[in-house]
Write a structure and sequence with these properties.
The structure is a homodimer.
Chain A (H helix, E strand, L loop, with lengths): L1 H8 L5 E12 L4 E10 L2 E6 L3 E6 L4 E4 L1 E6 L8 H8 L4 E6 L2 H7 L1 H11 L5 E6 L17 H7 L5 E7 L2 H5 L3 H12 L3 E4 L6 H8 L5 E2 L5 H9 L3 E5 L21 E4 L5 H6 L3 H10 L4 H8 L1 H6 L16 E4 L7 E6 L2 E5 L2 E2 L35 E7 L6 E7 L2 E2 L2 E2 L6 E7 L8 E7 L6 E5 L8 E5 L2 H14 L2 E12 L7 E10 L11 H17 L10 H4 L9 E4 L2 E4 L4 E2 L3 E2 L1
Parallel strand pairs in A: 1-4, 1-5, 6-7, 7-8, 8-9, 9-10, 11-12, 12-13
Antiparallel strand pairs in A: 1-2, 2-3, 5-14, 14-15, 15-16, 16-17, 18-19, 18-31, 20-21, 22-23, 22-25, 24-25, 24-26, 26-27, 28-29, 29-30
Helix pairs in contact in A: 3-4, 5-7, 11-12
């Protein structure tokens, strides 16, 4: 094995591939260098003057190490790992630390295994973090539970790289035994633990870190970054679709430079396709004033060091030949992407088969209802004239709680003709029959229902509507298609009187997310076209443009982010960390 | 396990130990911070305001992480690991990467095991590198051979941390299969390989690095450092007794800062006792203008990163509580040393039992001769009037070759009355009876013989003298005492005529190095007193002050350093990498 590298390095034999006349980023000294980069098999073997069996002329081009995304949920793209790779590899990303938190909440370990196996077909190194918080809270029904003992068992798997973002910060700080068991199991297996600690400071942060947690991607202030880095955390600069903190790059100093890396966390297919992946982060970071070499170091060497990805993230002998040939360090347009010594993309086009899909049965058909839903399942009986209604704060994930005046009729709250809508979370994993109900104010939608099987973090069915029958039809359609997005539009009265037991015409529009109800096995382009059409339909039916028609819905069940949320088990006050009564005195 | 840390971190329970009111170096951001440092069991659990069961007031003192010596041969101190620790731990060193190259050349794997087990008794983490070059060359008889297959077997041992400095650079660059097998075995075991590549550049360096080698401690120029760091090596700044390159610190830049660490390589007991260990390096680096925080980072975090010593080398929650309380970042006088949460030294005095010795039989009595040596074993018959003689170049390890005029009498070269001395390497491991002979010019010694069982790298007996009988007696005494240093002084004629078969009075002075003939099981102080007396005796007998009486001798057999050397197998021309004839035309 070594002989071939050494023969090529010393020029006794031709290299397999040579990037000729390159300018390249030396991440170890932080300068640009010039020369040929020689590759044998999957390794860089040397820089200098080389001849290769294949040569790529890199005159006037710049070569950087392949990018490493330090924290990403592939599921947020709604794409299969294969299709995801086909979008990000041509952008220059060659390694990702993937936390399959969403699919594992639906499918359990089968979700992790699926992501791992599906990724074997593509030229992208996908390091799988075992999700640490399945379910995210005990106040909901998820498709799977990974208790301490389950983590103990599964963290040892060879394909598991580490333990995923530890969101259950109170569980650690208050020393919950089952929570600590998870961290202890990761340490026993010698595996890294990712963190997630928004606004955790001081002694709480000390306690949290005493579980041996290495990273945070939730920093928002200079003080937070300073404290977290000084206490040993690596800090991810995040370039997600909704949540971004690229501005944190301005807190990079000579002293703390090595502790910053890049991640995308949650990034939609449309952004990946139109704007890019880490290349887009690099472009924006440099446009905002970050030194381009530093930006590259964050995206490569720093991430490799953080995750102990030895021999990766640099252009040097014996390093993995993961390379991106870009036009310059301003545009970061990837002309060629080399993964493990093979040219896998050119001018943004993948050179690998993007049509393969690994699709095991245990991630398909994941919508299970106790029985067919009926209109009266969505009756919401209130005690009086006042009730709590959810709102969405600017930003899209934090919700508000507003006390509203309500009218009822036949034991059901009246939402038609108001700016209120019914919200329902229908349990879809264990056939419990659970339905959590709430009111939402100000979404704007009228005349039916919309629903989706992405509902963080347990991914039950979340529905919103002003018509019980529409909501039932929406749920039933989602079951029928095995998960996805749906709009039910109530049309004209087709029998009976409008005032008394009318029967309406209904139109149903849906899009299938066949993989766990979260992702599609289709190609990004056709999926997006259909998705856009469905989103436009929702807006046409009144959803305000300030909301992401379906994805805003998907966060209304996330019971770890303030203020008022709804799970399949009921209305939840996140600040009190307890269920709450919808009725107000 | 984690619960105790977290309880202390969050102040629910008292910490075990608190360093109160400390100023401390934050290696992650490169600044000084103030606060209490709380410790529970072996871990740092937090910084802030804390109470502890025990408290140490650190007002006006500065706390730094325990130092990590990136590359050291304990044997060079001539002390047992226990005694070595008793000298360096009170100086602030808490972790060393130890390469037992010398003792392994004598005792094989028993040498490695001995260093590992002896180190268990002391509060110093000793990470054992399996020596990669045993023997150093095929041109000598060593006590053991670690071929590729032996490395394959032993590198997997849990107590083996990595593969020691790979000195056989031609073996790699020319793809010698057995040499590559060693590197491949280290990679298969997931273990680091230390380098040793003096003046290796360009394509040779590329080839060398393609064996997956991580470090170098032999850099002497800016260009060399720049190339080696840019090609991925970590560079040790060395503070040995003879070989030092502290000046390399001036090549530290913002860009390459994280790739420098400190080591001592070979440091004598006297220097350890009188000047110090890495504390002395830090003192001198800072005196020479290196920023003190950077100096500390090199000695701590950088070394921890290089050797993947996770949770070590920083003052932060969950990091190992290896700490040094110093007076300031200029003097670096260690007031307290904390190892794994325990106070193990105060004001330079160890607080641990320094008298324990682990002494297994297989590292004792390691001098084995085929038979008792006789005077005529040291007859050196030359063909003519000219012969090659060794000299020592300034610096002490590079030798010269000078052609000298010689006289012979009774078939033996005459050295008495000349500035020549006989040099002999007597094989002492395998009872081969091998004696390599040479002439040395200009050492100054007269009237007997001196000898030592430290003779790099195979550590046979090396003798120098002007009297065959004295040389035989010296060898026999070294066998008798199981290794060490000896002086035989020829005195007055006690019978016969001075001109014809005289019998002389002989005085023998010796010092025992019972452990492998390399190290003593005694305490440093009494050993040094005796050692100093013996060295003074050698100088009194004429050894010039420019030489280290015994240690200069010890390098005359090191057949990898130019120019002329002698091994038990004969006179060796290092530049031709072949044996050579002592006779000149």
């Amino acid at each position: 094995m070594l002989e071939k590298y050494i023969d090529a390095a010393t020029r006794r034999k031709k290299a397999d591939l040579v990037l000729k006349n390159a300018t390249f980023v030396d991440v170890f000294t932080g300068v640009l260098r010039k020369g040929d980069i020689a590759i044998a098999d999957e390794k860089i073997v040397g820089t200098g003057e080389y001849e290769g069996e294949t040569e790529i002329d890199c005159t006037n081009l710049t070569v950087v190490p392949g990018y490493i995304d330090g924290h990403v949920h592939i599921e947020s793209s709604q794409l299969s790992p294969e299709e995801f790779a086909s979008l990000i590899v041509p952008r220059g990303t060659t390694t990702i630390i993937a936390d399959p938190h969403e699919i594992t909440n639906v499918c359990g370990m089968a979700g992790c295994e699926y992501i791992a196996k599906a990724s074997e077909n593509v030229p992208l190194d996908v390091k799988i973090q075992l999700p640490s918080c399945v379910p995210a809270t005990p106040f909901e029904t998820s498709g799977a539970i990974l208790a301490g003992k389950d983590v103990e068992k599964n963290i040892k798997n060879e394909y598991i790289f580490g333990l995923g973002e530890f969101m259950n910060y109170p569980g650690i700080v208050y020393s919950d035994p089952d929570t600590l068991k998870k961290a202890e199991a990761a340490h026993a297996a010698g595996k890294i633990i990712d963190g997630h600690a928004p606004a955790v400071y001081g002694y709480d942060l000390n306690g949290y870190l005493c579980a041996g947690i290495s990273t945070d991607h939730e920093c928002v202030t200079k003080a937070e970054i300073d404290e977290k880095i000084s206490k040993g955390m690596y800090v991810h600069i995040r370039h997600g679709s909704s949540t971004q903190n690229l501005g944190n790059a301005k807190y990079i100093t000579d002293g703390n430079m090595r502790r910053f890396l890049l991640c995308t966390d949650d990034r939609h297919a449309a952004d990946l396709k139109e704007k890019g992946h880490l290349d887009d982060a690099l472009r924006k970071l440099v446009a905002n004033g970050l030194d381009p070499i530093r930006a590259v170091i964050c995206a490569t060497l720093n991430a490799a060091e953080c995750y102990n990805l030895k021999w990766r993230g640099a252009i040097a002998p014996f390093y993995l030949a993961d390379l991106v040939v870009v036009d310059n360090l301003k545009s970061f347009n990837a002309k060629y992407v080399i993964k493990s010594g093979k040219t896998v993309a050119k001018d943004g086009i993948p050179l690998f088969d993007t049509s393969k899909r690994y699709l095991p049965k245990n991630v398909l058909n994941t919508v299970h209802l106790k029985r067919e839903m009926r209109a009266d399942d969505f009756i919401l009986t209130l005690k009086g004239k006042k009730a709590k209604a959810m709102t969405i704060e600017p930003g899209g994930v934090v919700t508000g709680c507003e006390v509203v005046e309500v009218e009822s009729k036949n034991g059901d709250v009246v939402v038609e003709g108001t700016d209120l809508l019914k919200l329902a979370v229908v349990e879809r994993h264990k056939c419990t029959g659970n339905i959590g109900k709430a009111l939402f104010k100000g979404y704007g939608f009228k005349g039916g229902a919309l629903g989706i099987t992405i509902a963080h973090d347990s991914h039950n069915i979340i529905l919103m509507g002003d018509d019980n029958e529409s909501m039932a039809k929406a749920a039933n359609r989602l079951k029928e298609i095995g998960g996805g997005m749906v709009i039910v539009e109530r049309g004209a009265v087709i029998s009976g009187e409008a005032e008394k037991s009318p029967r309406y015409e209904y139109k149903i529009y849906s899009l299938t997310l066949d993989i766990a109800g979260l992702m599609s096995s289709r190609d990004a382009e056709s999926l997006q076209a259909d998705s856009r059409a469905l989103i436009e339909k929702a807006h046409a039916m009144g959803v305000k443009r300030e909301y992401e028609a379906f994805m805003s819905l998907a966060f209304l069940s996330l019971a770890v982010i303030p203020k008022l949320k709804v799970t399949d088990a009921g209305l939840f006050d996140v600040e009190k960390f307890a269920f709450t009564d919808i009725n107000e005195e």
